[in-house]
Amino acid sequence: MVATVSAGKSALINALIGRELLHSANEATTACVASIEHRPGQSGFHGRCLSSTGRELVRHDDVSADQIRSWNGDAHVRRIDLSGPFRSSRGLANRLVLLDTPGPNNSMDADHEKRVFDAWRKIPVQFVLYVLDIGQLTTADNKALLRKLHRRIKARPGLRIAFVLNKVDLLDRERGEDLQAYVAQARAFLEEAGFAEPMVIPTMAAAALYATMARHDEPLTRGQRARLRQALQAMEDHEQGLVSAAIVPAAVRRRVLKDLSELEPTRPALSGGDQALATEDWQRLVCMSGIRTIEHLIKHQRNAYEKS
């Protein structure tokens, strides 16, 4: 995954994993390249950190989010390898590896860009997700990074890219902030950057993660609960909005809509508290959040890659 600083790469990976494993905040939080491998059936997450020469520094068989955050802040650590079961995955292939990269535009560390593209050279990458913050869409940093990315993708025939338009749950519809208009703006911006017919997936990654956490009876902070209620209200207002707005292959959209149709909404009152919601409601929120669309798109692209 690639993005400018604070666009939400780590939050998106957490949502795909279904656990608050990687630190995410409204500031630069990823200093190391981190690989996260999906291993269904494994108990907990195993992890290790490596130096710039590839030497293993520390290994843990049950690594915690606090430990990963500590590794990420250690100047001697250049790469973190994690493996464990993804909670929210919908039939994702075993041994699928997600790659989290530092924001190349971090003004506090000019070495970040080198680390990102070094990782591209050393690790076989089949599919790229570029994360766009819906509130910082057409920034100069995005334009500069997209130009560099476009050159590298042109040099790698067969490498595909999709764009995740993150934090769409923060749009204020009462102020006229329309999802379809933002998706169209993103598409035009990406086409101008050289990406013909870009795939764009509007997503609310944080809300999807909190829904998965609530489903597993994990505690949420007050701010997380507020973000989750906001997303639930959006689901009430326009349930299939994100799915319909996504620019993805028709087969991917059909699979997501099929998943939604198999979940019966219970529609309890939102004032009843987070835990009053049924499992199906948490699943529906994850399904319509854009995360399920990304999961199906990953499978779709992987199948296409294996057939080529």
Automatic annotation (TrEMBL):
UniProt record, GO biological process: mitochondrial fusion
GO annotation, cellular component aspect: membrane
Localization per record: Membrane
Entry-linked Gene3D superfamilies: P-loop containing nucleotide triphosphate hydrolases (3.40.50.300)
Primary residence: membrane
Pfam families registered for this protein in UniProt: Dynamin_N
Limits of the Dynamin N-terminal domain: 4-167
GO molecular function annotation: GTP binding; GTPase activity
UniProt keyword list: GTP-binding, Hydrolase, Membrane, Nucleotide-binding
Top-rank taxon: Bacteria
Protein's name in the database: Dynamin N-terminal domain-containing protein
Species per Swiss-Prot/TrEMBL record: Alcaligenes xylosoxydans xylosoxydans
